[in-house]
Amino acid sequence: MFGRGLPLFRILGFQVKLDASWLILAVLVTWSLAAGYFPMRYEGLSGPTYLWMGVAGALGLFGSIVFHELSHSLVARRYGMSIRGITLFIFGGVAEMEDEPPTAQAEFLMAIAGPIASALLSISFYFLSDFGLRMGMDAPVPGVLGYLGFINMLLAGFNLVPAFPLDGGRMLRAVLWGWRGDLRWATRIAANAGASFGIALIAFGLFNVVTGNLIGGIWFMLIGFFVRSAAAGSYSQMETRRFFQGEPVRRFMVTDSITAPPDITVHRLVEDYIYRHYHELFPVVEDSRLLGCIGIAEIRQVPRERWDLVRVFDAMSPASPENTVGADTDAVEALAIMRRTGNSRLMVTEDGRLVGLVTLKDLLRLIAFKMDLEGMG
């Protein structure tokens, strides 16, 4: 779903990252609060005051989302689930799980932890806002606290909608999973509910656009498209995992890989390898030993006028856990590495030797074939 993101900080062992799209949300929230919400609720304040209130509200929302996702992550860790980190993006945040929950109970408790955390935050902010007013504080501080109380209650309520991948949808899947013991069936039902909810949001957004609420309507439509897409993607991910679970990478790898020697120049690599074979990546091998890989991304880092001077060995990316995988590694783990690193090709090794390549394109093609065959059956 996301790229690597910008690492911000670690909290309780979890890496918090910021997707570039979250900056759009930050600007929209700050602008809407400073230009609309706070001036409407608290008249007569200065422009700079409204601005800092908007910035404070956006930062408070940032912290609230982190707290919401952190609650998911802590419960997930309690049940042995691996969390890669917390990523904030334009539609909120997500705790990135490496695998599906081990039991229906674990999923239900992990899912409900988020809305509970947001509800507790809401109550706390409302209490602080009321306390500030009773103590005679100027309107801006209680105003920001009151907004954070409202937005956290809204966050808790929205996430309780039984539509996957929202927390309520995960709770629905957990209940169905516990009832029938069939995770695939439960995921399909919850994902269909999510897709229907997404369509409803899109329709509501269109209604708002037609009736004159352009910004709000577009925002509802965007959220609807995201929910619908995420619901479909979640079920596809489940089917992918079902297909590849327990299958070693060696079953899906290509063994006739074209390799490049480390001592040729980048210019020769381009002329004799890339323009001849049209591959995006070439493993670099010397005396049957895998050294690394080089492709379009690495070549772009070398100035064109230095192609005749720089060797492949000096320009390549060294072999590492981000671009290599063992031949007996579970294919699901290989897909997780691709998703985490953004690499669509992994070199398959055995005792330090290159034995093949596995590509995301080939894996997806196999999934398409399987779905076609099952559909025919």
Describe this structure in words.
Strands 1-2-3-4 form a 4-stranded mixed β-sheet. The two termini are 31 Å apart. It has 2 domains: 6-244, no CATH class; 249-376, Roll (CBS-domain). The relative contact order is 0.07. It has helices spanning 22-41, 47-78, 104-134, 140-159, 167-180, 183-210, 214-244, 266-277, 296-300, 312-315, 331-341, 360-376; strands spanning 6-11, 14-18, 83-89, 92-97, 281-286, 289-295, 317-318, 324-326, 345-350, 353-359. The chain contains 12 helices and 10 strands. It is globular, with a radius of gyration of 25 Å. Helix 11 (331-341) links the parallel strand 8 (324-326) and strand 9 (345-350). It is an alpha+beta fold.
Structural shape: globular
**Topology as H/E string?**
EEHHEEHHHHHHEEHHEEHEEH
Give the integer mean of the pLDDT values.
Answer: 85
Sheet with most strands:
4 strands, mixed
- DSSP summary, beta strand count: 10
Distance between the termini: 31 Å
Approximately what portion of the residues adopt beta-strand conformation? Answer: 5-15%
Gyration radius, to the nearest Å? Answer: 25 Å
Given the helix and strand composition, which structural class is it?
alpha+beta
How do the strands of the widest beta sheet line up side by side? 1-2-3-4
- Domains counted in the coordinates: how many? 2
Q: Work out the helix count.
A: 12
The portion of residues assigned to helices is: 55-70%
- Give the uncertain stretches in residue-range form: none
